[in-house]
Structure formats: C-alpha cells, structure tokens
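Predict the holo structure. Ligand: manganese (II) ion.
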Amino acid sequence: MDLFEYQGKQLFARYDIPISPGAAAYTVDEAVAAADGIGYPVVVKAQVHVGGRGKAGGVKLAADVTECRTHASNILGMDIKGHRVGLVWIEQASDIAREYYASFTLDRSAKLHLGMLSAQGGVEIEDVATTNPDAIARIQVDPVDGLTATQCEEWVSAAGLDPEARAGTLDILQKLWRCYEAADADLMEINPLILTTDGVVRALDAKVTLDANSVFRHPDYEQYEETQPRDSREQEAFGKGLQYVGLEGSVGVIANGAGLAMSTVDVVNEVGGKAANFLDIGGGANADVMAGALEVINHDPDVQAIFINIFGGITKGEEVANGIVQALERVAIDSPIVIRLDGTNAEEGRAILQPHLSDRLRLEPTMLDAARAVVALAKAK
Ligand code: GDP
Ligand code: MN
C-alpha cells in the first residue's frame, strides 16, 4: 500500500520528524490559496504514486502567486509515468545546502530490516547505488532488538555526513525507525533528507509503503486504501471486495486461494496464453462472489475466454458448482468459460455442472487440460 508524499509526511509528523509546512490542493485556486497562507516562495509538488517527479517536471519552485498559478495549472492533470496528477502538495520552499538519502526497508532474504544512509542523496541516488555503492552506509536491524542508539550513531558516522548535520540526522533516524516499526511499514524513504543553509535537518520528500496485511491493526489506513492507484477493472473489483490484480492478457482467471490463482496465471502462460488478471475469490465460492467475479472479468474488453479453477477444500464441490450455475443465470457472459473443478466432493460438483455444459461452458478433468482448452478458445475468438 503506497502513500502519497504528503500522506507520508503527515505520518512522519506524528513521530516528530521535522517537515516543511504545506497543504494539499486539488485545483489551481486551492493551490494559490494554500500558497498565500504559507507564504512565498513555495514548491508545487505533484502527488502521484511514483518517484522521479522532479525530473518529470512535477516539482517546481514558485516565487510568487503568478508562478504558483502557472506551475499548479501545468502540474495538475500532468501524466507522470502513466500516473495522472489529480492533487498537488504546496510546501514552504527550503534553502538547501546538502541533500542526503535515508531509508528503512525489509531485507526479506536476511529476515532483517535494512537501513541505508548516504551523503549523496537527491534525484541521482539510483546512479550512486550502481556507480558508487560504497557511498551508501548500510545497517541491518534485528526486528526483535530494534535499532539501538549505539548502532545508529555508528551508522551516521559511517555515512560521512557534514558534521553540522549529524545530530539532526541521528535524531530523525531514530524517529524514523520508531515510525517505520509502529506503522508496519515495508519501506520508508527520505530522499532528499536535507541540511538547510541555516543548519537544520529536515525530510523534504517521503516515500512510504505500508504492509496492507496490517490494516486490521490500523483502522486509519482505510484512507490510504481508498487512494491506491487502480485501473477501472481493479476499482470495480475493490468495490466488490475481491482480491484482483489487472494484467495484460486475454484469459480471465478465477480461482479460489491466492496460491491456486497464481498457479493458474502460470499454467496459462505455460501453454502459450496470457492471463488478463489474477483473481482470488477465497474460500466461500458462493453465487454472490462468483457472480461478482464474473462481472468484473466480463467488463474487461481484452478478455476472450474465462478459466474458472477451483480446488474444493473446506468449500465442497457441489457448493461451488451451484454457485457457478446460479451466477451464470444472473450474469450474461460474453466469453466462453472453461472450468476445472477438483478436490472435496468434486464428483458431486461435476454432476451438477453436467446438464449446463455446452461449447460456451466446458468442463475439463485437469488444470493443464483446462488451460490448453481456454487458451485455444481465447486465440480462436
Ligand atoms: P522526486 O523527484 O519525486 O523524488 O521529488 P522530490 O520531492 O525529492 O523533489 C525533487 C527535487 O526537487 C529535490 O531533490 C530537490 O532538489 C528539489 N526540491 C524539492 N523541494 C525543494 C525546496 O523546497 N527547495 C529547493 N530549493 N528545491 C527543492
Ligand atoms: Mn525524492
């Protein structure tokens, strides 16, 4: 779950991490009103779930109201790497002496957290990472012990920051760690972390990814779920509470369980097709859920054939089969459907489907047979 910069900064502020005063604006007039309130110069910043906004022209300094109006109208509506800007953050401009980089993220292979700090931050940090990796001081943080004060001090020393930035950076890193841990974050990145001309260290940018599985611990994360970037298919699926990810292919996929849904996408690929989506309908494959899933897939204009792949576990085969039959009575589907039904009470389930089978609704004995059939249908159409 990715946050906009301004949402990340507001989260930082709750942990006392210094940020610049600012306000969000959806229109040019709101942007000007915000800037008038903050005082010039301001920075007009595109709020999109993608980095590299500065290089794309999505971050602009405005010395006065005229420039603010110009920049806000140029940036609002701008396309940055496929993300349309619908919102700008207006922030009091900072006088930057130095730009550093700081982050915490998950090192999954080490099963530890990874902290990175560099004196060479800013928009070229990717180049620094490839051409001069030693310029990035790294630490591993044990999730049980947390970041100790000594460890943090050594880390800051190793990064070779300007002496006047060390105390402020040490303070921010300790707060950032507490924020990262308490928020159940997968990533918190400050680039640039700046030293101002009057010697203050401050977070000028915020890139935050939160663990979507932790929402139950953080009721306020609903606000972030609502602003996740989604295409129209994903938006519809989100509205129906389905676990859906849009892909580029022509075979619509419905499966029960995330693992089976991923395998289904793989097997479609394996036999020369391409999945149009990942869709996990979970355990309760009843008529409502199945109808909702079929509607979302049916609205995808790229779908040419649909693969329903169900392995009955706790959910019995006949319940799934009844769900499919009832869903098909409610939703008129444009594409042919191939079903593979296995697991608990699969025989009973197949018997229920039998009288409904046709060229448009086929039942195949195995996952591989079904994948071959559905890919052939998708290609024939
Ligand atoms: P990103 O390109 O998406 O990472 O956006 P950032 O928020 O990091 O901004 C990109 C660059 O714009 C920064 O590295 C700064 O050099 C510059 N910038 C952003 N805010 C200010 C500011 O308040 N004052 C000045 N002088 N430059 C800024
Ligand atoms: Mn940045």
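The chain has three domains: 21-92, 96-223, 232-380. The two ends are 37 Å apart (CA to CA).
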